[in-house]
Amino acid sequence: MSQDFPADSVGLVTPRQQHFDQPLELDCGQSLPEFDLVYESYGTLNEDRSNAILVAHALSGSHHAAGYHAGAHKPGWWEACIGPGKPIDTNRFFVVCSNNLGGCHGSTGPLSTNPLTGRPYGAAFPIVTVRDWVRSQARLADALGIQRWAAVIGGSLGGMQAMQWAIDYPDRIAHAVVIAGAPKLSAQNIAFNEVARQAILTDPEFHEGHYADEGVIPRRGLALARMIGHITYLSDDAMRAKFGRELREGKINFNYEVEFQVESYLRHQGQSFVDRFDATTYLLMTKALDYFDPAANFDDDLSRALAGVKAGFLVLSFTSDWRFPPSRSREIVKALLDTDKSVSYADIVAHHGHDAFLMPVPEYLGIFSAYMDRVGREVGA
């Protein structure tokens, strides 16, 4: 079946899978004897392999960051920023995005077969961290023949991975772009994650994480978790502008069915999420968020944690982001400046909330494009 794609899209894309047969030691003390990473790539790797960009995904993202899968009408999650002429210009850069370990879109995760039992890992899948993801991504870079990324880029949880790359592999990353990020979660953020996890863990169909063996899905818990999360991704202004107090039937019915449009929207978001995501992956991703704290091993001194980085940084925040507010991004900027690192920072006026990093906000795209133009010129792309 033929498809027509927008001119500024990378068009039809096909995921690839990379198998690793050497054990990967994890921060939790366990190891994966072998694992797979599923990834997509866009653009062309230049002769000296200097124009490679790694895009790290956020909590519910995947390797499908741009373009279209065969027969699909919805593009990848960062179509606004990846493609010909866009901030991450695929006419200049070779872009790689992999599904994180523990994911549910092809990389080894809870639904994969445990080679020791021949059954799905389920709850036996080890807890993974941002550092574990970065280590696995370094293996992928090796497999692709990429010694140094021109930039590692991510929003939210993806931004945490970009920071960790700069800390753990200072000679393998030229630039880190951290968008809507934070150096660690606040107690309030951890609390939101815990409520979401409890929704899943207490679902009668969870079966202590072995629901795949039972042939069921903890649908109610996963949907509730997504609804909780989704509220925090949007700003009050964005929800008011989109829904206000609009009623579906134009009147109050004095019952507990869906009456307000915002209720209908949240239920739709929750149910559609169940169809494309895994409950244990959600548990793992939120734990990785909670655990991320690069300053923890440096007496809570973030500047010391970042003292060894060599990458230039672009840090972007959004005025209406209350989940990771601009003050959290400025903590990163201050820590970098305290040790005389190269950093550019902008706080973008946007009403979309935390999800603004996924939106085509003109000021955001302009600043992002200008920085990436600099990255491109440095590598001759």
Automatic annotation (TrEMBL):
<comment type="similarity">
    <text>Belongs to the AB hydrolase superfamily. MetX family.</text>
</comment>
<dbReference type="GO" id="GO:0009092">
    <property type="term" value="P:homoserine metabolic process"/>
</dbReference>
<feature type="active site">
    <location>
        <position position="354"/>
    </location>
</feature>
<feature type="binding site">
    <location>
        <position position="226"/>
    </location>
    <ligand>
        <name>substrate</name>
    </ligand>
</feature>
<keyword id="KW-0012">Acyltransferase</keyword>
<keyword id="KW-0486">Methionine biosynthesis</keyword>
<dbReference type="GO" id="GO:0009086">
    <property type="term" value="P:methionine biosynthetic process"/>
</dbReference>
<feature type="active site" description="Nucleophile">
    <location>
        <position position="156"/>
    </location>
</feature>
<dbReference type="InterPro" id="IPR000073">
    <property type="entry name" value="AB_hydrolase_1"/>
</dbReference>
<keyword id="KW-0028">Amino-acid biosynthesis</keyword>
<dbReference type="InterPro" id="IPR008220">
    <property type="entry name" value="HAT_MetX-like"/>
</dbReference>
<keyword id="KW-0963">Cytoplasm</keyword>
<feature type="site" description="Important for acyl-CoA specificity">
    <location>
        <position position="323"/>
    </location>
</feature>
<dbReference type="InterPro" id="IPR029058">
    <property type="entry name" value="AB_hydrolase_fold"/>
</dbReference>
<feature type="active site">
    <location>
        <position position="321"/>
    </location>
</feature>
<comment type="pathway">
    <text>Amino-acid biosynthesis; L-methionine biosynthesis via de novo pathway; O-succinyl-L-homoserine from L-homoserine: step 1/1.</text>
</comment>
<dbReference type="Pfam" id="PF00561">
    <property type="entry name" value="Abhydrolase_1"/>
</dbReference>
<comment type="subunit">
    <text>Homodimer.</text>
</comment>
<feature type="binding site">
    <location>
        <position position="355"/>
    </location>
    <ligand>
        <name>substrate</name>
    </ligand>
</feature>
<keyword id="KW-0808">Transferase</keyword>
<dbReference type="GO" id="GO:0004414">
    <property type="term" value="F:homoserine O-acetyltransferase activity"/>
</dbReference>
<feature type="domain" description="AB hydrolase-1">
    <location>
        <begin position="52"/>
        <end position="336"/>
    </location>
</feature>
<comment type="function">
    <text>Transfers a succinyl group from succinyl-CoA to L-homoserine, forming succinyl-L-homoserine.</text>
</comment>
<dbReference type="GO" id="GO:0008899">
    <property type="term" value="F:homoserine O-succinyltransferase activity"/>
</dbReference>
<dbReference type="GO" id="GO:0005737">
    <property type="term" value="C:cytoplasm"/>
</dbReference>
<protein>
    <recommendedName>
        <fullName>Homoserine O-succinyltransferase</fullName>
        <ecNumber>2.3.1.46</ecNumber>
    </recommendedName>
</protein>
